[in-house]
From TrEMBL:
Keywords: Membrane, Signal, Transmembrane, Transmembrane helix. One of its GO terms (cellular component) is plasma membrane. One of its GO terms (molecular function) is D-glucose transmembrane transporter activity. It comes from Stegastes partitus. SUPFAM superfamilies: MFS general substrate transporter (SSF103473). The chain crosses the membrane at residues 36-59, 66-86. InterPro entries: GLUT, MFS_dom, MFS_sugar_transport-like, MFS_trans_sf. It is found in: Membrane. Residues 1-90 form the Major facilitator superfamily (MFS) profile domain. It comes from the Eukaryota. This is Solute carrier family 2, facilitated glucose transporter member 9-like.
């Protein structure tokens, strides 16, 4: 039963939030920042996977089969974040997507104020 639930979590994660990482990463960052951002995001993703692998036996002994409810709650929270915070990008140009991501307010700070410098020849 537990092995089946583990396989189900892997399949659902790979088809859902696991696949979103690369897509959202390519839409959030401008072209010049994408390689560095992709490296950092994937390093963080692998680091959390390693931590999950290390702590999973302790979670199983502590929570038994209720461990999967913890994973389900994390997936629900991620889905709510994606649904309510991230803007829709279907059918929009890269510049429009970039402007929408800049308009997102995080901790009371908006990134839409751009600093421009003028040069005179």
């Amino acid at each position: 039963m537990t092995a089946g639930l583990i396989a189900l979590v892997i399949v659902c994660f790979s088809g859902g939030p696991g696949a979103v990482t690369g897509t959202v990463n390519s839409e959030i960052f401008i072209q010049s920042d994408r390689p560095a951002a992709f490296v950092l995001v994937m390093m963080l993703r692998w680091f959390t996977a390693i931590l999950l692998g290390l702590f999973f036996p302790f979670l199983i002994t502590t929570l038994s089969s209720y461990t999967f409810i913890l994973f389900a709650c994390v997936c629900v929270l991620g889905s709510l974040y994606i649904f309510f915070v991230l803007p829709e990008t279907k059918g929009k140009a890269l510049l429009e997507i970039s402007e929408e991501f800049k308009a997102i307010t995080v901790c009371g700070k908006s990134f839409s104020e751009e600093q421009t410098t003028e040069t005179k020849f």
